[in-house]
Amino acid sequence: MTKQEIFERLLALPSEIAKAEDTVIESHRQVISAKDILQQKEDDLLLGNMIDGKNAEIRSAQMRQHTEHERLNLSNAELHLKNDVARLGKLRDEFRALQAVANLLQGVA
Q1: Distance of alpha carbon 32 from the chain centroid
Q2: From the centroid of its chain, how far is CA 106?
Q3: What is the reported pLDDT for 101?
Q4: Of 36, 55, 87, 107, whose CB count within 10 A is highest?
Q5: Nearest Cα residue to 28 out of 68, 69, 88, 97
Q6: In whole angstroms, what is the distance from residue 36 CA to residue 58 CA?
Q7: Where are the domains of the chain?
Q8: What is the mean pLDDT of residues 31-58?
Q9: Rounded to an integer, what is the distance from CA 21 to the centroid of its chain?
Q10: Looking at the domain 3-108, which fold is it?
């Protein structure tokens, strides 16, 4: 990487980091929304007497069976959040590394 490329990348990264932060916030909102939807579905099942197993294990199995779609959505939302957080971390690491390189180059020049 040339000095010019380092300079250009350092100028571009703050904008990319800001976008990645916005993406993480949106992904977190989607996780919260998916949790709320799952909770509402579970509440509706309980209040609608759809869960009627004789013991906790059976009731739990019935709940999982009736909320499979909502649980999948929550799992996907959590995975997206983890990936978005990892991408943000990589961008921040790259920024710090390039700052360190720029500081070293400044000492050499």
Answers
A1: 11
A2: 37
A3: 94
A4: 87
A5: 88
A6: 23
A7: 3-108
A8: 95
A9: 10
A10: Helix Hairpins (1.10.287)
Burial 25-42 (b: 16+ CB within 10 A, else e): eebbebbeebeebbeebb
Query: What tokens appear for 19 in the block?
Result: 């976008």
Helix or strand run (H / E) with residue 75: helix 68-108
pLDDT given for residue 109 in this prediction: 59
The average pLDDT across 3-23 equals: 96
- Please give the mean pLDDT across all residues of the chain: 95
Global pTM? 0.86
Nearest to 34 by CA among 80, 66, 84: 80
For residues 25 and 85, give the distance between their C-alpha atoms in angstroms, rounded to a whole number: 9
- pLDDT for the residue numbered 106: 87
65: pLDDT confidence band, cut at 50, 70 and 90? very high
Structure tokens at 30: 């989607």
Q: What radius of gyration do the chain's Cα atoms show?
A: 23
Diameter of the chain by CA atoms?
Answer: 77
